[in-house]
Fold these 2 entries.
Entry 1:
Amino acid sequence: MALQKMQRINIYALLKYCKDILETLQRRSVIQIENVNIEDSVFFKEDTGSLQSSYRRSADIAKKASDIINEYVKSKKSLFSTFKGRKSITTDEYNELVESSSEILKIAYDIINFKNNINQNETEIVKYEAQLEAIKPWLNLDIPMTFTKTATTRAFIGVFEGERSEGDLLKALAEVCPDVDGIDIEIISSNENQTCVFILCKLSDEQTVYDSLRQIGFSLPQYQSKVIPKQREKEIIKHINNRKGRILENTNNIIEASKYLEKLNFLEDYFIMKAERYQVIDNISTSNNTFILSGYIAKDDAADLKKYLEEHYWAEVELEDALDADTPVKLKNSKFTEPVESVLATYSYPDHKEADPTSIMAIFYYIFFGMMFSDAGYGIVMSIACAILLLKFKKMEKGLKKSIKMFFWCGVSTTFWGLMFGSFFGDAISVICKTYFNVEAPSIPGVVTPIWFNPVNDPMRMLMFAFLLGIIHLFVGLGIQAYNDIKNKEYLGVLYDVISWYLLVGGAILALLSMDMMGNIAGFVLPPVCMKIGGYMAIAGAVIILLFSGRDSKNPVKRFLKGAYGLYGATGYLSDILSYSRLLALGLATGVIAQVFNQIGSMFGTSVIGVILFIIVFVVGHALNIGINALGAYVHTNRLQFVEFFGKFYKGGGKEFKPFKINTKYFTVKEEI
Amino acid sequence: MSEIMNNSGVFFALLGAAFATFFAGIGSAIGVGKAGVAAAGVLSEDPSKFGKVLIFQLLPATQGIYGLLIAFLVLSYTGIIGDPATVSMEQGLLYFAACLPIAFAGLMSAIHQGKCSVAAIGTVSKKPDQMGKALILPAMVETYAILALLVSILSVFGIAKM
């Protein structure tokens, strides 16, 4: 339960070792590198911006290429691929891949070209298909659409809106230009939207006819083929097939290139790694022959690194305890409590002045989760599932591993509380015994009968127990506040902010429990003397809070008002304690819903089909219940920690220690030691 | 005749069970629906966030389940399912009253939890690492459904013992 002691580290070394030292640091990932702001006549900063961006661009190209491959080749991603973690390669394999990196980059460019080619051809196909659609009504026309005249005649090829018959058109035309005769109209095709026509007239009447036609709604087609439509259709189809062929060819090329997928992934990792190393160079100052690097390191790792750098690279390493407010925070916890660090991280890292609450929080976390989920069957399922994942996928990413470990312990706790409350897949065993064997279930403690008591039969007892745990939880939180105060040498704060609340809340509870009214609910009454003691304690606490919680203000009126407001915080304690009733409510919800499914399953009778239906309902129902109630337990356990517990002492706002490390997505390189 | 009078509470008990399932169920349906729309929007941009947004979509689902839970308790205590039992008028009305907290607190809290989930899905889509904080905000709303569930459960247990 502690924050690791951090040290400020300064490394001075010869420039010729710079690359090696950075590589060492990146591999060891123990230093968080900070910016060194020395720029004068001797020291300067190297500008690596263009190099960095060129590496990042290469990484992007590799990523783009692998994305394209993934688009065309469905990789067999199993359900568990998230757990697999990164593939590890040996240093030899690494060097080999690095050597061929320019070659792989070329392949990446090729793949992107294939894809561009496909896109281009696809656009063209769309264009041709539109043409094909436009030419369809004209297929019966046996001359090119651009045909206009012979020696004596003038032809008009065009469309009318709507469905028009030859007679219609002739009549309409006669109305507009009665003097012209010898007009021949041929309907090429017609549907409800448009009528395509071929109109022939004498060349001498050209202008009159054209004007008249315009008047009755004639228009020229948007697409005109220079050859006979049928022939044009054939051409277009040929073009389309041609394009399709090219697409297929390129697709095959991409599929062919999919064997390079792993190498492309490696390339992406490699360039990102390189870019990050150069990014670090932004933070160091160099002179012509030397460089300075500065950062934070955990004290435990410091001596080792110092020795290594001094021996191998003749570097000068300077260490001092880091005390400034910006010092990043690195947590250190035991194996049992460490998994909960990830929960803490989602809230905020502790300020380096306060205690790391992880270990205490972990204990309550497991207890609360278990009580809300409270079913031995579910707990066993959860723990076994987590254990299998942990054993099977040893290379799992760190963060994920922590979460899985946490759920493993939550499962253990769930099993424990399930046995205490006598819930094993709800009341599965009694239901099975009663329905199929017609006997009462044997009283197996834990699985059939509760070891402690069944909250369904005695919810008030459970409620009291939930409140008791809640009070303990809150008081422990206050205790950590006291610890922090002592650590920061604010001894009076312990009295004013912690002991006062112990007195007020503790006294009030004592007094409440000795009242007859509360006795009905709690099931027991404390002797009247507790009323007196509790009363005095509460009054003493209240007076301290009233007088001292506004001690920062110099103005006495303001101070008093602040004190009164502080006292008002007592209502907060009331709601905080009542909030723990969710331990009961969610625990009951899990148990009762499990019973519901068992009962529904048993309704189908004792026939073979009945048994099969029971099994189906049992599996689906309990899987559903596990899902929804594990989610509920997780969310509400977090809430109890974040709101009720952290509200009492935790400030947070610390910066996470982010070491300079190898930040790869697909590969890790095995170190040869 | 007397048998009918003795058992006349069943109607109100059933009405209560119906209230609990259908009001809390409506609330959850609305809440889950809203969150689902937002979740689908996020997925269209980044399908890899499916696991994360699904959790947010499920948050308002619990009220409907709490309603079902109370309804089931009432149904089994009043003999509508399982072993037959007689329910007097008085008991039936009491069961009805016991169902009201989860029915209405469930309805409203699920709708508002759904809205809160929508906003939280937005948070996660932009800042996936803030999952923990984003999860707490909708969970705050759920508190009131849990309190209502608690009162409903304790009442139903109490009435059954009477």
Note: The mean pLDDT of chain A is 87.
Entry 2:
Amino acid sequence: MSVSADRVDVRKTYKLYVGGKFPRSESGRSYEVYAAPRGARSAAAGTRGAFLGNVAKGSRKDARDAVVAARKAQPGWGGATAYNRGQVLYRVAEVMEGRRAQFVNEVQAAEGLTAARAEAVVSAAIDRWVWYAGWSDKYTQVDGSLNPVAGPYFNISAAEPTGVVAVLAPQRSSLLGLVSVVAPVVVSGNTAVVLASQDRPIPSVSLAESLATSDVPGGVVNIITGHTAEVAPWLASHRDVNALDLTGAADVEGMAWGDLERAAAENLKRVLRPAGGGSGAQEPDFLPTPDLTRLRAFTETKTVWHPKGT
Amino acid sequence: MTTTPAPLVTAAGQATRATEHLGVTRLTNQALSSWLHGLPGVDQVGCDARAATLGTRSIKTTAKAWAIDLAISMIDLTTLEGADTPGKVRGLCTKALSPLPSDPTTPRPAAVCVYGDMVATAREVLGDSGIKVAAVATAFPSGRASMAVKLADTRDAVEAGADEIDMVIDRGAFLSGDYLTVFEQVAAVKEVCGTARLKVIMETGELVTYDNVRRASWLSMLAGADFIKTSTGKVSPAATLPVTLIMLEAVRDWREQTGQMVGVKPAGGIRTSKEAIKFLVAVNEVAGHGGAWLSPEYFRFGASSLLNDLLLQRQRMSTGAYSGADYIPDDSPSLY
């Protein structure tokens, strides 16, 4: 009998990521997560794969705590230099690269992909961090402008972070999709409260561990695993959340879109909807290189007048 | 619960009462020592455990709403910074008068607590609104000044219109066993206070043991304290639940012995509604007497940021959505 057969399993506790720490859910709840069957196109496929683990089932109070942490972290992160934020984002890519094998295994199990396909997805996810890292000190030049005015003034418009952004991460693309929605939010100086994919949350926990060990200040990204339809309304109505990314609301059963958008309107949140909207909403394909749409969606344009020297 | 002005007590009268209470002919340090050291010791582990257990009580829905309103009405809204200005004190008083302008049903805090030189400013803004003006005195927060200075400090605040005086005890004297000095100082300040209520700050973070907290509580009450208060807020740890538990036991036992109600004020470090509600649970469970202490008359929170969190929770309960700092008044004036 080999040594490994004698070993007791060391099972992992999948926890939340809030304020740079890994707490269990305040509610004490967890839920079972299963692998997607090989080749499954959607998370809701009928046949159930192998048991992967018990994952913390976040509650509204976990979401509230995450918003508090995000709010607290925002001035520091938003006030960091663009150069610094770019470096930190690049560092995330470095750390993920070091854990590539783990990510490949988890994505493969979570999404039912072939090994080669999972490799490609993880590479794309890592490259996505690098892509956004490069934009950190460039997007303001692209988005900002020196406006022509009739007077002895400079009139300058420049993008600034919106604040705290609640993100419903894509349900199917558990890692690449997650990175593709989180990176554009934080690169400009926003902080994020992310609801991970409900049925495929395990890669998000590993991403949290990468973030925690890669110079990203605690609270800048907070990841809550749990039931999307249960927690999302609390984030949508939260007055201290400035914007809402509804990408992950596509394909969620029992998601009341109208209610989410109405609640978000209470404090004039910016809302980013996936293509289609409502029951026809579709999760985007995250493989192609993105454009600046997502980054722009969570910025505010500040315009200042400055007297010209004579 | 009525506010009867405390009878004017002289320091000598207080000493006479103390000798009667102790059953001795003359109030000496030895008499005080043997009395204080004769108090039963505090079971530290048991006390911490009881506090932890009380902290697990679940207070929800209507009970929570009631507790939040009660906690707001118990706050001594405090600003004790070297950088305080009349403008900042006015801002704080305005906030006390109208804690949440969007919801006029919000109760007002009990008092505004400031340094002695800001009393007149606070008094002017608060007027006859019923919100008390509390002043820290006696060389707050260290208490390291001569008795003459401490008394002058107190007199100054009372004359400027303070309704309540927060004094600090001489921790150095207390810790070296010189209980008579502490007694005499508290009694002397009490005499100068006149009708102003005297809160005695024991600075429990410096008292080292729970036994000392119990002794300091009894000593303060014997010397005429109307309130016993945990901390200045300048020393960490400040107000903890176990320490407050010991003080609540002391005021409860004091009432059994003398019939007098003495208030308790935890101050410093209480920042969230959740913590505040734990204290209220402790008041009800430990002090008992049908919740006699569950009133701003006999229980206060010394706090500055607690009010904001209580207001956020109050909004959460009335609107059903989590609220944010943008939706409650900002009491710190802009620096620009």
Note: The longest strand of chain A covers residues 153-161.
